[in-house]
C-alpha cells in the first residue's frame, strides 16, 4: 500500500487503494458536467503504427468526463494526414486533429516567424504549444490534461486521477503533475530521472546552496513525467520549452506563475511503461544524451534568472559532486530493485552516470558561451498582443483542414 507522506513543498495526493476507480469516475463525471475538460495528445505519425496508441483510443472510448480531444500530428505528409484522420475516426469522443506540417498551419507558422514568435525547433514542445493555442481559440475548456501517445499500460483511471485535482472546484490546485514507478518486464526504468535529475538536484544543493526552487523540484516524485493537467485560465501565461527540457521547463513555469499551494502531484499508476530512448553515447544530439544536456541547461537558466552566478569552476565542482552522489544513488536503486525482484544492470547504470556527468559540464559550457539562448516559445498572451487575429485564424485553419478532408 502507498504511504501518505507529505514533503511540505507541494501537496502529494496518493493512491491509498481505499477508493474504487469507478467511484472516482462517477464523481468526476458529475464535476465535469460543469467543468469542461480537454485532453491534448501530441503525436508523431509513426505512433499510429505502434501498439500503444490504438489501445489508448480504445480506452478513451470508455471515458465520459472528457469533452474534447485535441490531437497534434507531427511528421505527416498529405497522404499520411488523410490516413491519420481515418485512424482517429475510431475515437468516439469529439476531437480535432492539427496537421502541423500541412500548408495552412505552415502559413500560420510563417506568420509567427515574421513577428519573431515562431517555435524554432520541431518536437513535442512545439506540438503541445500549437495544441494549447488551438484550445484557447476554441474557448470551450476549463481544464486541460496532457499525456503522451506511447503509454503501453494506459488506463482511464490514470487519466481520471490526473484530471481530478484541478477539475474539482473544492480544491485550490491549478497545476497537477502525475507520478508513478517506472518498472516493466522485471526492470527498473526511468534512468534520466533516477540517475541524472535526482542526484543533480542534490549536488546543486551542496554546490550552490539551498534554493527554494531546488526544494520545489526535489519534492516531485517523478519530475520528468509527461502527464500533467492544469486550469485553462493559466495557459495564456505559460511558456512552453521547445527542447527536451519540456517537463522541467513546465514545472519551472508553474513555479514562476503560481503559489506553491496551487501546485500538486498525484499518483496516477502503479504500472507504467512506454517506449525507451537509447542512451546514445556516440551522438550527443540524440537519445538520453541530448535529453540530459537540455535538462541541465533548463536548470541552469532558471537558477540564473533567480540570481545564481555560474562559472567554469561551478560546473567542475557540480560535476564532481554529482558523480559521487549519483554513484550512491546507483547503489540505493540496485538494492531497492533487488529487494523487489527487479533487475538493474549496475555496469550500464554507471555508464549512464559517466555520460551524464560529462554532459553537465558540456551543458554548462554551452550556457556560458550563449547566455542569451532562449528555448522557450513565447506565451500565447504575447502572441495575442502582437497579432490579435492569429488565434482565430489558427482555429479557422484547423477547421478548414477538417472540412477539406472530411
Write structural notes for this entry.
This is Glycosyl transferase. With 406 residues, the chain is of the alpha/beta class. The strands form 3 sheets. Strands 1-11-6-9-5-2-3-4 form an 8-stranded mixed β-sheet, sandwiched between helices. A two-stranded antiparallel ribbon has the order 7-8. The model has no long low-confidence stretch (mean pLDDT 94).
List the helices and strands and how they pair.
Elements: E1 11-13, H1 21-31, E2 37-44, H2 52-60, E3 68-74, H3 78-88, E4 95-99, H4 103-114, H5 124-138, E5 143-146, H6 156-167, E6 175-179, E7 183-184, E8 187-188, H7 191-208, H8 212-218, E9 228-231, E10 240-241, H9 246-257, E11 263-267, H10 287-305, H11 312-339, H12 346-369, E12 376-377, H13 380-386, H14 390-404
Parallel strand pairs: 1-11, 2-3, 2-5, 3-4, 6-11
Antiparallel strand pairs: 5-9, 6-9, 7-8, 10-12
Helix pairs in contact: 1-6, 5-14, 7-11, 9-10, 10-12, 11-12
Mean pLDDT: 94
Helix content: 40-55%
Residue share in β-strands:
5-15%
Written as H for each helix and E for each strand, in order along the chain, the element string is: EHEHEHEHHEHEEEHHEEHEHHHEHH
The tally of beta strands, per DSSP, is 12
* Shape label: globular
Note the main sheet. 8 strands, mixed
Number of helices: 14
Widest beta sheet: strand line-up: 1-11-6-9-5-2-3-4
Q: How many angstroms does the end-to-end distance come to?
A: 49 Å
- Please give the radius of gyration in angstroms: 21 Å
Secondary-structure class: alpha/beta
Indicate the low-confidence ranges by residue numbers: none
